[in-house]
TrEMBL record:
<comment type="similarity">
    <text>Belongs to the CDS family.</text>
</comment>
<keyword id="KW-1003">Cell membrane</keyword>
<dbReference type="Pfam" id="PF01148">
    <property type="entry name" value="CTP_transf_1"/>
</dbReference>
<keyword id="KW-1208">Phospholipid metabolism</keyword>
<keyword id="KW-1133">Transmembrane helix</keyword>
<keyword id="KW-0812">Transmembrane</keyword>
<feature type="transmembrane region" description="Helical">
    <location>
        <begin position="109"/>
        <end position="126"/>
    </location>
</feature>
<dbReference type="GO" id="GO:0016024">
    <property type="term" value="P:CDP-diacylglycerol biosynthetic process"/>
</dbReference>
<comment type="pathway">
    <text>Phospholipid metabolism; CDP-diacylglycerol biosynthesis; CDP-diacylglycerol from sn-glycerol 3-phosphate: step 3/3.</text>
</comment>
<dbReference type="GO" id="GO:0005886">
    <property type="term" value="C:plasma membrane"/>
</dbReference>
<feature type="transmembrane region" description="Helical">
    <location>
        <begin position="46"/>
        <end position="65"/>
    </location>
</feature>
<dbReference type="InterPro" id="IPR000374">
    <property type="entry name" value="PC_trans"/>
</dbReference>
<feature type="transmembrane region" description="Helical">
    <location>
        <begin position="77"/>
        <end position="97"/>
    </location>
</feature>
<feature type="transmembrane region" description="Helical">
    <location>
        <begin position="174"/>
        <end position="192"/>
    </location>
</feature>
<keyword id="KW-0594">Phospholipid biosynthesis</keyword>
<comment type="pathway">
    <text>Lipid metabolism.</text>
</comment>
<protein>
    <recommendedName>
        <fullName>Phosphatidate cytidylyltransferase</fullName>
        <ecNumber>2.7.7.41</ecNumber>
    </recommendedName>
</protein>
């Protein structure tokens, strides 16, 4: 517990000021987190990021999370993000031939989906920060409330397993408790923020985000169970890896964007 607290304090001391400042430092932080997340995911399948295919997958990830405020740089070369992304997919497919199938189609598909999975989350992380700090804190507090509520209510009253094949300790009672705790946070944000939505809409959005955040957590649990690993990484002592900390948010941030909470979209 002591190690977890120390790690959390140090990480917050580094993370929060950069999130507040925004701009290029925040973009670089997002790129760093996403790259480490991809490294962890590839490592689960015994694929190294420090290889030709790992390099291609990383470049593919970087294209996916390329912030829209810098689109003019890419437009200088008369290419869109989609076109560049397709080029990397073709290169990964060609690499299966070059390696005489030592790097297989399955490996290539895993690399592409891994880049998309990690990339979409951190791209919309930057989109949320662009829209305003309130959306970052809303998403963070929603998931912290969900995780805490699910843990404590699950411990106190959990009897029915939620999905034992994937995460044996999670319960239906804990999951519902997490949603209730998230709703309390949602009410507070609805009352004291300038969200472009009514209280009823905020409550509905909060329920969806809480549920899908838990699904995001289960997705990463399924990865770890399939590949027989305890944590995605060791970069955060006591907490595991980047994916262990951001798994829920990788689902929440894209959905937050799709709900169009912020104006002028």
């Amino acid at each position: 517990m002591k190690q977890r607290i120390i790690t959390a304090v140090v990480a917050a001391a580094l993370f929060v000021p950069i999130v507040f400042y925004g701009g290029l430092p925040f973009v670089l932080l997002s790129y760093f987190l996403a790259t480490v997340g991809l490294y962890e995911l590839l490592k689960m399948k015994n694929l190294s990021i420090f290889t030709v295919h790992g390099f291609l997958a990383t470049l593919f990830l970087w294209v996916i999370i390329f912030p829209k405020q810098y689109d003019h740089i890419m437009n200088t070369f008369y290419y869109t993000k989609t076109e560049v992304a397709i080029a990397f997919v073709l290169l990964l497919l060609a690499y299966t031939v070059i390696t005489k199938n030592r790097f297989t189609f399955e490996d290539g598909a895993f690399s592409v989906l891994s880049s998309v999975y990690v990339g979409m989350g951190f791209y919309f992380f930057m989109e949320a920060r662009d829209a305003g700090l309130v959306y970052i804190f809303y998403s963070l507090f929603i998931m912290w409330a969900t995780d805490s509520g699910a843990y404590f209510i699950g411990k106190a009253a959990g009897k029915n397993k939620l999905w034992p094949e994937i995460s044996p300790n999670k319960t239906i009672e804990g999951s519902l408790g997490g949603v209730v705790c998230a709703l309390i946070v949602g009410v507070l944000f609805a009352l004291f923020s300038d969200f472009n939505a009514s209280l009823l809409e905020i409550l509905g959005i909060t329920i969806v985000l809480s549920v899908f955040g838990q699904i995001g957590d289960l997705v990463e649990s399924a990865f770890k169970r399939h590949f027989n690993v305890k944590d995605s990484g060791k970069i955060l002592p006591g907490h595991g890896g980047i994916l262990d900390r951001f798994d829920s948010l990788l689902f929440v941030w894209p959905l937050l964007h799709f709900f169009h909470l912020w104006p002028n979209l």
